[in-house]
Every structure is written in C-alpha cells, then in structure tokens.
Amino acid sequence: MAEEEGEKEVTLLGTWSSPFVLRVKWALRIKGVEYTYVEEDLRNKSPQLLQYNPVHKKVPVLVHRGRAIAESSVILHYIDEAWPHHPLLPHHPYEKAMARFWCKFEDDKLSPPLWRVLTTQAEEQREAHASAIESLGLLENELEGKKFFGGQTIGLVDVWFGALAYIIPIYEEITGLKLVEQRKLPRLCRWMEEFLSSPAVEGTLPPKDMLLPRYAAMREAFLAKAKRPEQQ
Amino acid sequence: MVAAAAEVKLLGMWASPSVRRVEWGLQMKGIEYEYVEEDLANKSAALLRHNPVHKQVPVLLHGDRAVTDSLLILEYIDETWLGMPLLPRDPYRRASARFWAKFAEENCREATKKAFFERGEERSEAIEQLREQLQRLDEELEGKKFFGGVEIGFADLAVGWMAFWLGVSEEVAGFTVVDAKKLPRFAEWMDDFLRVPVIRDNLPPREKTVEFFRYYRDQQLAAAAAAAK
C-alpha cells in the first residue's frame, strides 16, 4: 500500500513561464508519469524549494519518493532511467553521446546568441543574429531524413530544443528579425509544427499573450541598462 | 558496428584538466589508448575534422566515432566499457553524481575563471562565489571519503580539477579560497584524491603547469587591455 503511494509520489516545483520546467513536464507526459505540480514564486521562494534545491534555489526541481533532483538535464536523465519505457535517449552509447552533444550545443551555441538577439541592438544584435542563424543551420542539417531529432518519435533532443518552437516566433515578433524562415530552414520549420502539435506538448505552453509582454519587457530592461554609463 | 576493442585515440593537451579527466577515466577502466598531443596554436586537421563546432580538446576517437566534451566522453566510456563503472547503477545516485559534476564543471569553473582573469569588483565577487561553492562541496562530502563514496567515481573525476588546477590558479592569480580550517572535508578529499594511483600518476608537472598558466594569464590580460583602448 505504502509502496504504491510512493510510486505516484512525484512532485514538480516550477514556474509557469520557465522553458526549463516545460522540458520536465514534457518528459513526464511522454512517460505517462502522474505528478503534483507546485507553482513557485521566485521572488518569494518557498521553504520547500529552499530545502529541495539549497545549492541553486531554482526551478525545476523534481521530487520523487522524497528525494529531490535539480537541474533540467539531470532531471531528464533521471526520468529516463527511473521510468525506462518510452525511452528518451537512444539505446546505443554513441547515439546517446550524440544526443547529449546536441543538448550541449543548444546551451553553448544557440541559446546565448538567441538571448543576445533579444537583448541587444545594432551591431551586437546583427552579430548575434548571424551566429544564431549559423547554429540553426546545423540543426536543419541534423533533421535530414528525420521527423524528430529523436527519429520517428520525440526524444531527449526534441524535448531539449522544444521551447525554441514557441520562443523563436516570439523573439521574431519582438525584434522584427527573422530566425526560422520556411524557405531557408524548411525542416526546422516543419519540426516546430510537428513538435507543438504532438500529444506530449499540446496544451502545455504558457499563453502567448502573457509571454510576449514578458520577453518584450526583458528586452527593454536590457537595452536601458546598456544605455546607462558604466559605474566605475 | 564498432567493437569495444577498436582503436581508441585521445586528442589532448598536456596542461588541460578536461583532458586529464578523460585519461583518468580511461585508465580506471583499463582501456588502452593512443594519446595525441595537440598544439592548440596550430590545430591538427584531425582535431578540426572531429570537433568542427568547438575545435577543442579533448576529443575521443573510437574506431570511426568521435566524441567531444570531457563529461560526455566519460559517460560514453562508461556505457561502452562496462567494467569498473564510473557512475553508480541507481538512478538517484546517478542523478546526484551528474548534479555535482555539472556544479563543478559549470559553476565552479566559471567562478574560477573570473577570479583568475578579472580585476576589481568582478574578481572579488567571483572569489566570494567560489568560497560559497567550496562550502557546498565540503558539505556534500559529509560522511563520505569521496563524492563517489568509498571509491572515486564520475563526480570525483568531474570535481578533480579542483584538487590540482585550483591551487595553480590561486598561485598564479594571487588569491586563496581553499582554507583547510573552513573546508576540512574538502581539503582532506583533495589529499585523498591526489593519492589515488590513477590520479597521482597522471598529473602534469606542477611547476611547468604554473608557468604555463602564468604565461596564459599574462597573454589574456594584455589582450584585454589592448582591446579596451
């Protein structure tokens, strides 16, 4: 009896707008794992959050059978290993390594320039834009002959990149810069549609009318900060 | 299909902690490999071909496969050669090892880099951050000899650079964060870690490493000063 209750004892601490939290939600959905979701206010962190993630005090945090796991990449691997059905990672060690490589690629070579596209202007923004386009081009190549990065079904890399599918159009709208053009990155375009309409993802996205002003405000804040003279 | 017995080559650089980390893993598992020293000022065709995205060492070549990024390489090694596991079997313990590896590799490295290269307030903030991070590592070692438990494991290999290269950074850049009184468990871990034969026998010469990082730091600072003008 206690064992069965323990089995369902999964809690996810998150915030509505965080793409990192969404990754975990998608993974739990794919695995069919039921969980309790707790919305955190990061300006007023709960004792639970501070207890479960004392090192970083961030979301997402997954709590399973009373034990906490933090950092979305660590959580995704944990989910894949604790619930081995519907695997997120390929079976073969080399393919696993390649999947992890693409996740790191996103962190190192795609997220940073995309962030700079949102938060800078003029020359800095132009450079960031070019850099982001170059990285997106590599993703386009990787999708050759595949419906998803994971193959026929959504895998770890799709979950990892997934937020881009809804964030990129928002960045495009705010900055007026095109990032994923149908004629230049057709596979990526199609992937975005497939991903967003898949059962695991449908209905999970934060509302656009809440996200757009949020990201627009970030842009304004960063541009304003850049205009102020350096404090020596 | 590449058999585990296919040829293994490691492209590396003698002073790099990321490269040594892979060597520690390979040697713990008793994997034979050929080491190829790269001149990072004059990168080989092989390096550029096998790591076109980052053009960095280490790169592990196994048959016709190339794996980059030291922690990814260690996971690949662990999943391909099953003897002497680096990661535990239990998913939660694996998650814990990966968490601390990420902490050491991203947060601690970032802070160390800033303490090493920056000046003024950015530097003192980084040093403070590093002290807090070391406190966390010290706490994690409670009741354990190594991060991996009784023996070294994945997390120890990931944190391992701090047992040697952190001291080098402190010496070259003139700061102190490892206070044995404030971090008794971490200080003991450093000693125990460096005494493990596979580690002890696979470290760069200290003086030469200090010299190298001193030169590297001077170069970077000069370049930053020139750019600021």
From TrEMBL, chain A:
Family from the record: Belongs to the GST superfamily.
GO biological process, one term: glutathione metabolic process
GO molecular function, one term: glutathione transferase activity
Keywords annotated in UniProt: Transferase
Enzyme kind, highest EC tier: transferase
EC number, as in UniProt: 2.5.1.18
Residue stretches making up the GST N-terminal domain: 8-87
Catalyses which reaction(s): RX + glutathione = an S-substituted glutathione + a halide anion + H(+)
Region forming the signal peptide: none
Annotated Pfam families: GST_C, GST_N
Name of the molecule in the record: glutathione transferase
TrEMBL record, chain B:
Domain GST N-terminal intervals: 6-85
Example of a GO MF term: glutathione transferase activity
Domain GST C-terminal: 90-212
Pfam family membership, one: GST_C_2
Presence of keyword Coiled coil: yes
InterPro entries on file: Glutathione-S-Trfase_C-like, Glutathione_S-Trfase, Glutathione_S-Trfase_N, GST_C_Tau, Omega/Tau-like
Recorded catalytic activity of this chain's protein: RX + glutathione = an S-substituted glutathione + a halide anion + H(+)
Record's keyword terms, sorted: Coiled coil, Cytoplasm, Transferase
CDD domains: GST_C_Tau, GST_N_Tau
Main location: cytoplasm
EC number: 2.5.1.18
Cell compartments where the protein resides: Cytoplasm, Cytosol
Coiled-coil annotated spans: 117-147
Enzyme class: transferase
GO BP term, example: glutathione metabolic process
GO cellular component: cytosol
Family of the protein in this entry: Belongs to the GST superfamily.
PANTHER family found in the cross-reference section: GLUTATHIONE S-TRANSFERASE, GST, SUPERFAMILY, GST DOMAIN CONTAINING, GLUTATHIONE TRANSFERASE
General function of this protein: Is involved in the conjugation of reduced glutathione to a wide number of exogenous and endogenous hydrophobic electrophiles.
Protein name: Glutathione S-transferase
Biological source species: Zingiber officinale (Ginger)
